[in-house]
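**Paired protein data**
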Amino acid sequence: MSHLADAALPPVAPSAPEPQTGPPGPPGPEHHHALDVSRLARRSRAQTRVRWELLRNLIRKDLKVKYKGSTLGFAWSLANPMLLLVVYTFVFQIVLKSGIPRFGIYLMSGLLVWNAFSGSVSASCGSVVANANLVKKVRFPLAVLPLSAVGFAAVHFLLQLLVLFVVILALGYSLLGPELLLLVPAGAVALTFTVALSLLVSALNVRYRDTAHLLDVALLAWFWLNPMVYAFGLIQNRLADLTWVYLLNPMAVVVITFQRAIYDPPPGNSTGSAPILANPGYTFYLEHLAVAGVISLALLWLGLHVFRALQADFAEDL
């Protein structure tokens, strides 16, 4: 019986070994990977801060140099749109009789952003060449040179736009409305397109010095491809179903959007022969801004690619 009782008892499991105590082992590869990622992230943030600080300093320096010794200083940038407004109103509304009511405001609502664009691209084109000694002797992110030209023009543009707003309100015209929000996407597209083209021409001009001369001619012709001294309705009447080809020009889309946001057309939105504004709604502008934004981003990719490919040879080409 005893052997049957013993057989009925369950076998006793061996006791688990005591856990080993001692110093922890070396960290695994996952730990090292996490440290590397954190270190790279901190380095990237630090480099970004340095680039932004350098860009701000360059813009600040350009502003100080431009108005150094000037009695009026920044007031000159504010007086410029006022003088243009008076001159263009006299020439196109009184002398040439364009047929567009309040032609000066219509023109300036598009001309200011065009001037900012053309001024940025022109200055950016020669920015690397003009700083040849700095490029050869100091190691720094070279893209800040054309970008500082864009920032310089952007500061002036914002000041001049503020003056235009003050003039419009002083003349008793409507300004504050939902259409003013169109300035946000239009400004974003204008900035992206300007930066993209500035990077591209600044890099090409180091290798091919004729770039600056070709750019001057192109900008002169490009000015007339934007509806600033004529109503956009004339383009719609002439091109009809092919108007979309005209609107593949991102700056034309930006200009007509700025006009829609700022200019208050007369009842009927017409000069008698053609509409003044492209469209009285908002969807039309947002759709074409989306297309212009895609074009601008594609050009930005190209500009960055070309700039990075050529910047290694800047010192030799200069």
